[in-house]
Amino acid sequence: MKLAVFVAAGLMVSGTAFAQSAEETAAFLTFGFRDGGTMGDSKQQGIVRKLSDNPLKLHLDTGKSMTITLTVTQPKHCFFRMQVSDVDHDPKIRSDITYDFSKFTGLENSMGMFTRPVFSGECAITNESEGCVEPFIGARQLFVPIASSQAAADYMKSKFCAGRAF
């Protein structure tokens, strides 16, 4: 529940969009996490740090009650599994979502304020417990600069997963 409140409150993210791996790019496009990026709201902020490359583990510790560890794997080409846990307080997986970037078409820009990744076709995003789910506007879409988001989207399409035109 803390994660949902933290995400819904909106997070601030700083830094560039270019990542070194497909997993890092997917993590940035979906959650806004990148190694060295600042995230948080006005009450809880922290720096995202990379714990490991294989699997990719990114960790946010706000120094207060919230810690988030995002584990990203690529079970098959262009499918990115994102598992969210709070390893410091409760190691069980709280969210387990897979994004099919072979269906990635680009970004949706709303009111010039935020973006979110857009996918075409059915069931591009699945939740381990619920099956097909709709994309949500969460933390990363609210405060990641639009130019950084677009750069990450272009990088994903040119280097890792071409996705679809529409």
Largest sheet: 8 strands, antiparallel
Helical content stands at: 10-25%
Radius of gyration: 15 Å
Oligomer: single chain
- Secondary structure tally: strands: 10
Strand order of the largest sheet: 1-2-3-4-5-6-9-10
Intertermini distance: 35 Å
Q: Name the shape in a single word.
A: globular
Mean of all residue-level pLDDT scores: 80
Low-pLDDT runs of 5+ residues are: 1-19
Q: Any idea how many domains?
A: 1
Structural features, described:
With 166 residues, the protein is of the alpha+beta class. It has one domain (2-159). It is built from 4 helices and 10 strands. It has an 8-stranded antiparallel beta sheet with strand order 1-2-3-4-5-6-9-10, covered by helices on one side. The protein has a two-stranded antiparallel ribbon with strand order 7-8. The protein is globular and about 45 Å long.
